[in-house]
Here is the input.
Amino acid sequence: MASPYLVLDNVCVELDGKQILRDISLTIARREFVCVIGTSGGGKTTLLRTIAGLLPAASGAITLGGRAVTGPSPRAALVFQHFGLFPWKTVRSNIVYGPRVQGRPVDQALVRRMLEALRLSAVADYYPAQLSGGMKQRVGIARALVAEPEMLLLDEPFSALDAITRESLQNEVLRLWEANDTMTALQVTHDIDEALLMADRVLVVSGPPGRITYEMTVDLPRPRGSLQIRAHPDYPRLRKLLWDSLSDPVAEPAPASARGHARPGTAPLPEAT
Here is the structure.
């Protein structure tokens, strides 16, 4: 396994006097893709925003690349569920916002590659109001990638899209991540099938307050595509494990030593064939 990159040590988060996350301990390796699933209200988005430095932890510690997370960092880029685009900026201006606000030179070759890869070249001078939902989400993804983050954080980036656009973007994000030699990714999703497609590991967060109640390694081959993954013989069993973990979460999280495997009290992870 690659060296640890993101480490959370007993992180608790409180908002308006209520505990939203409780004792979250987690290690994600460099270049790993991890998905977080769970029912509504469990604190998944709060977890992502805390890692991004947008919300403070009440207790515990978070390190990214060995450095403490105390606020937003150019090392992490967050793709919001509802696009988060600046309506007064063109597609191109939205995409280059990250490096410009950080005072870094814009890699125009990278901008062109992202425009081409995400099929945005023809609308580069359009404004968000002129775009479809799928195009807006592609702009948000391109903006995150042009910032060249070490940590890509995705907050349900495909949930508002139609099925065809969602599957197309899932495959595009996977292809872009697989082509990057340094990027680590953490994605929040409600979709079990999406988690199995995207992730090396899947975490189930149950609450409130949110805590990790189940963890599973997705031992399916890469590179992946949605059609190939669904045809894999282990796919139905893996999906059932996650479904069962959402339907009947364990009362308390397992100790840190159990991380990376199915939690105690659950069916064992099947061997991939």
